[in-house]
Amino acid sequence: SFCLHPKDMNHTKGGLVIFTANSHPSSRELGKRIAERLGVELGKVQVYQEPNRETRVQIQESVRGKDVFVIQTVSKDVNTTIMEMLIMVYACRTSCARSITGVLPYFPYSKQCKMRKRGSIVSKLIASMMCKAGLTHLITMDLHQKEIQGFFNIPVDNLRASPFLLQYIQEEIPDYRNAVIVAKSPASAKRAQSFAERLRLGIAVIHGEAQDAESDMVDGRHSPPTVKTTGAIHPSMEIPLLIPKEKPPITVVGDVGGRIAIIVDDIIDDVDSFVAAAETLKERGAYKIFVMATHGLLSSEAPRFIEESAIDEVVVTNTIPHELQKLQCPKIKTVDISMILSEAIRRIHNGESMSYLFRNIGVDD
């Protein structure tokens, strides 16, 4: 009879290695879950900060000719996280890995993806650095703007968490049919519309003064032009001025009276705007308020503000570890998305189609 040599058994997993590049223990949780679902051990690696705060990565097993997946969740210290990732990827590349796929459920600096005043598009810089380090593929979730995919010159899979959040609404909110999906600003109206259409619910949009109007006055743009005009522009020609924006007082477009309000967004970090939105909805007669977001950054005082606010429950996924915040605020609930990440890894490793993970996802989602 044909007998498999124990060493040949590995070929079913033909050279799949999963690493977590985090020196922070709470951040390794997601990596453990993914490895567990795939039935593989996490790769042996040491990632640590030296006393002088330099990051050191030592891979403790062979990765030559293997498909390497580096799982990196963003911890409190985002810049260290990025550095760990870059050094890890570069270490795999210089150790002759066949392919290196980064699994960054939350892509750091994704909010800085537009040119503002004299700033820069940091997302593009991070993307270039990752490609330069040797990344050959990226798996991420709910990019702040879908166009960030175009900053990379490698394939990017932007997975969606909305199926998990929709499932939560249907299973955990008993009378969700009496709910209305709310966008706390016109910017997140598209996402709210997507949720509302899938759940066959109504939509409401809040707009008006409570949004933090970012002051343009600090910039030099409002400094008057120097009196001495150059000969280039004809004296009678004047560049038309753009009328400054003035936000109306807060209004809710759509009816929330006697309904459950579900505020949806992609990132919940600074909770002031969510708390203000919840107050507004309470005043307009909503009797229960949920907040749903993919990435729960929940920085600094966020858990305390949520605990003291009119919000009844905040539902986020585990793209970012937030165990500490949950201890401070029992209103925070977690949805596990390790399943879709492990399935993406399995499909990429086996060379299968990814379209199954993107079914029913429209161009606006």
UniProtKB/TrEMBL annotation:
<dbReference type="GO" id="GO:0006015">
    <property type="term" value="P:5-phosphoribose 1-diphosphate biosynthetic process"/>
</dbReference>
<dbReference type="InterPro" id="IPR029057">
    <property type="entry name" value="PRTase-like"/>
</dbReference>
<dbReference type="Pfam" id="PF14572">
    <property type="entry name" value="Pribosyl_synth"/>
</dbReference>
<dbReference type="GO" id="GO:0006164">
    <property type="term" value="P:purine nucleotide biosynthetic process"/>
</dbReference>
<dbReference type="GO" id="GO:0005737">
    <property type="term" value="C:cytoplasm"/>
</dbReference>
<dbReference type="GO" id="GO:0002189">
    <property type="term" value="C:ribose phosphate diphosphokinase complex"/>
</dbReference>
<protein>
    <recommendedName>
        <fullName>Phosphoribosyl pyrophosphate synthase-associated protein 2</fullName>
    </recommendedName>
</protein>
<dbReference type="GO" id="GO:0005524">
    <property type="term" value="F:ATP binding"/>
</dbReference>
<dbReference type="GO" id="GO:0000287">
    <property type="term" value="F:magnesium ion binding"/>
</dbReference>
<keyword id="KW-0545">Nucleotide biosynthesis</keyword>
<comment type="similarity">
    <text>Belongs to the ribose-phosphate pyrophosphokinase family.</text>
</comment>
<comment type="function">
    <text>Seems to play a negative regulatory role in 5-phosphoribose 1-diphosphate synthesis.</text>
</comment>
<dbReference type="InterPro" id="IPR000836">
    <property type="entry name" value="PRTase_dom"/>
</dbReference>
<feature type="domain" description="Ribose-phosphate pyrophosphokinase N-terminal">
    <location>
        <begin position="17"/>
        <end position="134"/>
    </location>
</feature>
<keyword id="KW-0597">Phosphoprotein</keyword>
<keyword id="KW-0007">Acetylation</keyword>
<dbReference type="Pfam" id="PF13793">
    <property type="entry name" value="Pribosyltran_N"/>
</dbReference>
<dbReference type="InterPro" id="IPR005946">
    <property type="entry name" value="Rib-P_diPkinase"/>
</dbReference>
<dbReference type="InterPro" id="IPR029099">
    <property type="entry name" value="Pribosyltran_N"/>
</dbReference>
<comment type="subunit">
    <text>Binds to PRPS1 and PRPS2.</text>
</comment>
<dbReference type="GO" id="GO:0004749">
    <property type="term" value="F:ribose phosphate diphosphokinase activity"/>
</dbReference>
